[in-house]
Amino acid sequence: MSFFTAPFRPLAAIALCVSLAACGGGGDGACSACLFAASVPSTPASSTTAPGATDSPPSTPVPASPTDTTGTPTPADTAPLSYAIGGTLTGLASNTKLVLLDNGGDALTLAANGAFSFAAPVAFNTGYAVTVGTYPLWQNCSVSNGSGTATANVSSVTVNCVAAQAQVSTFAGSGTAGSNDGAGTAASFNGLAAVTADISGNVYVADNANSMIRKITPAGVVTTLAGSTTPGYADGTGAAARFNQPAGVAVDASGNVYVADYGNNMIRKITPAGVVTTLAGSTTAGSMDGIGTNARFNGPWNSDVDASGNLYVIDGNNNVIRKITPDGVVTTLAGSATPGSADGIGSAASFNYPSSLRVSPDGNIYVADSDNNMIRKVTPEGVVTTLAGSLTPGFADGTGAAARFKAPWGIGADASGYLYVVDRGNYSVRKITPDGVVTTIAGSQTPGSADGIGTAAQFSNLLDVTVDLDGNLYVIEGLLVRKITPVR
């Protein structure tokens, strides 16, 4: 063993010399060796100090020992080499999700306000940067104290979310009546009545006065899926099919489009290839449950599809909500022929010219009850309650019955269960939380056709609204399709 790594034991060496001298053994050389050994400082066995190095403190400070999860200090020689990054989230709306990133990765999904911490720790003296990866639907979130260098556990990052403003733009339509296919404002419509969106972001509209069903890609390219400007009744493919004032459209997960064919008192089905068949109803108006063409409707106006493929239809002139299974079995879910505003179960409940409905992700059906100035909720079992609004028309944000609408006509639902209503008489687009809190996101109560943010935008002849999976809204106004997106 080299003496540079031997333990420093000067007293023991001196004692050895004394012993040798006392014994007379070893001579002067032995004692000289002993004295030399006694004069050489040693380093601990684990040291790697080279010959000539000193024992002075290191020039770089050693980081303070962190604590373990119980708060007990950790010995310096077992200190972790990385630290947790976290903080506090406030303002996140209920039923929504926020995705945060640290250094562009380590995605953290948050669904509730409160403390958070990323899964992956950050190495000592390494930078961290917390950013928003995915915003909640219709909210903006800001990050404070989100970057720095990790020298200890971090819990000071703060994230706050607030409602996003609404940007209104014209998506498709020239504003002049016509039936031209084309991109954006090169396309034309004539009396749009209903709108829906599929899982790929395509938008479908019931072009009522043209007796057509039109398809619009996410890029705004308009084509005709089925029907022609000649009204009538005929199953067939594409332009060979005939509709008579189609007033409702819905799309299922497979891309099949269902049409409430108002003038024919029928429910029609269109495959993605444009093949049209009749699912239920006949050209004879009535109010009868049954299978397929044995069922009767009187002015079916609007519809939507649930996750199981069941279709719900507003039978407008009968003031009832009908349910149609994928096999074409028609039953009456709620309402009666007598107009009214009563909550209740099945036929004990009443509506007054309901104009639109949407199925929420929770399976409940929400109805724009136009002449009652209310938004109604219908469970899959047919239990009807009033979510917001009252018989008194007006314009007021608020909760439940304290809110006021004026002829709410169309309704949409996003993936988080928030509702969007086109308030026709107020020329505005309103938002309703699952708890019934109503706010206004766009429109000025003054008729017009102006793009802009929030109340700077203007609408006229609002009829329906739908929401795509990204939370973008599409509203129709007779000759135009407008798009509403959150301002980022």
Written overview of the protein:
This protein has 488 residues and is mainly β. Helix content is 6%, strand content 41%. It has 2 helices and 40 strands. A 5-stranded antiparallel beta sheet has the order 37-11-40-39-38, with no helix packed on it. A 5-stranded antiparallel beta sheet has the order 12-16-15-14-13, with no helix packed on it. A hairpin with a 4-residue loop joins strand 39 (473-476) and strand 40. Helix 1 (10-23) runs antiparallel to helix 2 (27-39). The chain is globular. Residues 1-70 have low confidence and may be disordered.
Short structural description:
With 488 residues, the protein is mainly beta. It is built from two helices and 40 strands.
Uncertain residue ranges? 1-70
Mean pLDDT: 87
**Percent of residues in helical segments?**
under 10%
Structural class by secondary-structure content: mainly beta
Q: How many β-strand runs?
A: 40
How would you summarize the topology of this molecule?
Layout: H1 10-23, H2 27-39, E1 82-83, E2 85-90, E3 98-102, E4 105-110, E5 114-117, E6 122-123, E7 126-134, E8 139-144, E9 147-150, E10 154-163, E11 166-172, E12 182-183, E13 192-197, E14 203-207, E15 212-216, E16 221-227, E17 236-237, E18 246-251, E19 257-261, E20 266-270, E21 275-281, E22 290-291, E23 300-305, E24 311-315, E25 320-324, E26 329-335, E27 344-345, E28 354-359, E29 365-369, E30 374-378, E31 383-389, E32 398-399, E33 408-413, E34 419-423, E35 428-432, E36 437-442, E37 452-453, E38 464-467, E39 473-476, E40 481-486
Parallel strand pairs: 2-10
Antiparallel strand pairs: 1-6, 2-5, 3-4, 3-7, 7-9, 8-10, 11-37, 11-40, 12-16, 13-14, 14-15, 15-16, 17-21, 18-19, 19-20, 20-21, 22-26, 23-24, 24-25, 25-26, 27-31, 28-29, 29-30, 30-31, 32-36, 33-34, 34-35, 35-36, 38-39, 39-40
Helix pairs in contact: 1-2
